[in-house]
Design goal:
Helices cover 86% and strands 0% of the residues. It is mainly α. 2% of the residues are buried.
């Protein structure tokens, strides 16, 4: 949107202040074509504000969707990781119980061998 003004009045005012008709007409034409065509009006600014608010709301909706998606994905990832940790923990528990059982058997066998050596030594003495 452009700003409208009375170019004839401006040209006349410039001439009455001592400017030549040719110069006042050129200055008025330059002002209208190059400067005022590029000046934002209040309506232009309101339209821009409305557009920016709409764009911002659209971005907020997209961000909310991304947050929901990421939250869902992180929850699923956390569940998978917890399941894997539980599986590893279960295997470690099973392996440590088996190791404990083997060590108990070996310790029992060593104690029996020790008792047998003591009994044999007492019989020899």
């Amino acid at each position: 949107m452009s700003i409208h003004f009375d170019t004839l009045k401006l040209s006349s005012d410039l001439q009455s202040s001592g400017m030549t008709q040719e110069l006042s007409e050129k200055l008025t034409a330059l002002l209208q074509s190059d400067v005022l065509e590029n000046v934002a009006t209040k309506q232009d600014l309101r339209d821009l504000e409305t557009s920016l608010r709409s764009d911002t709301r659209g971005l907020e909706v997209k961000i909310e969707k991304l947050e929901t998606t990421m939250s869902t994905r992180f929850d699923a990832l956390e569940l998978r990781m917890n399941n894997r940790f539980e599986a590893v923990e279960q295997r470690m528990t099973t392996q440590s119980e088996a190791l404990e059982q083997r060590m108990t058997i070996k310790l029992g066998a060593m104690m029996m061998a020790g008792v047998a050596v003591i009994v044999a030594a007492q019989k020899l003495l």
